[in-house]
Design a protein that fits this description.
14 helices; Rossmann fold; alpha/beta; 4-stranded parallel β-sheet; 307 residues; binds (~{Z})-2-methylbut-2-enedioic acid
Length: 307
């Protein structure tokens, strides 16, 4: 019987040849498993992945991430075939808001501009003024011409943004179940074990955790911080895929996960088998009905103008 490494090597070779045959680009989020990051053409956050999708020359985009990310790729590149290797890879945070519930909130706050975090469905993006990621949330908020902002759906990111602006941020009640699994005890424990190591966390963590950390930022900001800080040990307070990326790019430092709960089960649904199957069958395809896509495009296009 083949061991996992031998089997993955065979699958990786097959994927590379199918990629050529089908004229495909493989995009992977920073939260993907190592085997997936290693075969991807580009590994990054939603902002970088959206940029890559928008300028893709290939006919097929295999999106190794979750549903809303593949939707964003389709919104930006509707002439491409966008594949999500496991169609059940969703995002519980994105599912906390629907077009109907957002419409009701808009009626409650008629003067507010709507900023939606990229972790939202195409229909939510379609009725938002602008989309943002955790890497440009602050620039988007400060750039928008409104004093009152309905910020959906992540309440923790909304809280973090509120700390850095004089505008009124009205948060939605959503949160990321993975980042919610970080507790103050985790911070206390790593401070004891690695007293010299800075703790870098994602703003999707609870405000209490953010307040205790040494650095707060998006996955890309955390990666840049971990690479450039003078310390040789860094504690990572976001999904464990970021550690995989760092271990490949920075061999002289040690990275430790803040909490063993920082694993997103949806991100881990993508693997070499389902990438291979998706390339063979060109399924499952992700599409968005044109009237929704056209409106959501405007929110995403504005997001890409803020860096
Ligand atoms: O923007 C993204 O891709 C997400 C979901 C997190 C991050 O900070 O990269």
């Amino acid at each position: 019987m083949l061991n996992i490494t031998e089997r993955n090597k065979i699958l990786a070779e097959k994927i590379l040849s199918l990629k050529e045959e089908k004229d495909a680009l493989i995009l992977a989020h920073n939260y993907q498993a190592e085997e997936v990051q290693l075969i991807a053409d580009y590994v990054g956050d939603s902002f970088g992945l959206s940029q890559q999708a928008a300028k893709a020359k290939e006919q097929v985009i295999v999106f190794c991430g979750v549903h809303f990310m593949a939707e964003s790729a389709y919104i930006l590149a509707p002439d491409k075939t966008v594949l999500l290797p496991d169609k059940n890879a969703g995002c519980p945070l994105a599912d906390t808001i629907t077009e109907v519930s957002l419409q009701a909130a808009k009626e409650k706050y008629p003067g507010a501009a709507v900023v939606c975090y990229v972790n939202s469905s195409a229909s939510v993006k379609a009725i938002s003024d602008v989309c943002c990621t955790s890497s440009n949330a602050m620039q988007v908020i400060n750039g928008i011409d409104a004093q009152q902002i309905l910020f959906v759906p992540d309440k923790n990111l909304a809280h973090w943004v509120q700390q850095h602006t004089t505008k009124e941020i009205i948060p939605w009640e959503g949160a990321c179940v993975t980042h919610q699994r970080v507790y103050p005890e985790h911070i206390k424990k790593v401070r004891e074990l690695y007293p010299a190591a800075p703790i870098a966390v994602h703003p999707e963590c609870e405000p209490e955790i953010v307040a205790m950390a040494d650095f707060v930022g998006s996955t890309t900001a955390i990666i840049n911080f971990a690479k450039t800080c003078p310390e040789k040990e860094v504690i990572i307070g976001t999904e464990m895929g970021v550690i995989t990326k760092l271990q490949h790019e920075v061999s002289h430092k040690n990275f430790y996960l803040l909490s063993q709960g920082l694993i997103c089960p949806n991100m881990k649904k993508t693997n070499l088998q389902n990438i291979c199957a998706a390339l063979e069958s060109l399924e499952p395809k992700i599409t968005v009905p044109e009237p929704i896509r056209a409106k959501a495009y405007l929110a995403l296009e504005k997001m890409l103008s803020y860096k």
